[in-house]
Amino acid sequence: LLSRRNELTVSAVARNYSTVARQMASLLRDGAVKDVSVGELKPGEEGRIEFTMVISFDSDKLLTFKPVNDN
């Protein structure tokens, strides 16, 4: 769910730190993504990395809902 500031906060688990970095790079290649920031990174089960990520979107490049006028 996007906030009013066009941000999405995600909690995720990755195989390693390189996977987190590749995911960030992939998101930043998308024209609708303005910024990606990673919050807390911590070791999880089986050596995996638990992290949070905030993805900021360019609202001009997102699809928007426009109500249909039934008149």
Question: Into which percentage range does the β-strand content fall?
Answer: 35-45%
Using only C-alpha atoms, the radius of gyration works out to: 16 Å
Judging from the principal axes of the Cα atoms, what is the shape?
elongated
Class based on secondary structure composition and strand pairing: alpha+beta
Cα distance spanning the termini? 31 Å
**Percent of residues in helices:** 10-25%
Number of strands: 3
- The ordered string of helix (H) and strand (E) elements is EHEE
Task: Tell me the quaternary state.
Answer: single chain
Count helical runs.
Answer: 1
- Biggest β-sheet strands, sense, barrel: 3 strands, antiparallel
Written description of the protein model:
- The protein has 71 residues and is an alpha+beta fold.
- 18% of the residues lie in helices and 39% in strands.
- The chain is built from 1 helix and 3 strands, in the order E-H-E-E.
- The protein has a 3-stranded antiparallel beta sheet, with helices on one face.
- Strand 2 and strand 3 (49-57) form a beta hairpin.
- The longest helix has 13 residues, at 17-29.
- The two termini are 31 Å apart.
- The model has no long low-confidence stretch (mean pLDDT 87).
